[in-house]
Design a protein that fits this description.
mainly alpha
Length: 54
C-alpha cells in the first residue's frame, strides 16, 4: 500500500517555493523586456547621465 504523506510541512514548503519561483519568473520577464527594448533603455540612461541633476 502507499504510505500516507505528511501534508502540512510539505504544503508550507511548496508555497514558499512557488512564491520564490514566481518572483524569479517576474525578474526574468523584466530582464527580457529590458533586453527586448535595450536600445531605448540605453538611450534613456544616457539621457539621464547627460541631463544635469535637478
Amino acid at each position: 500500500m502507499l504510505k500516507k504523506k505528511k501534508p502540512a510541512l510539505k504544503r508550507r514548503r511548496r508555497l514558499l517555493d512557488v512564491a520564490s519561483s514566481r518572483r524569479r519568473i517576474k525578474r526574468n520577464l523584466q530582464i527580457k523586456k529590458v533586453h527586448h527594448r535595450r536600445r531605448s533603455f540605453i538611450a534613456y540612461f544616457q539621457h539621464l547621465v547627460e541631463a544635469p541633476a535637478v
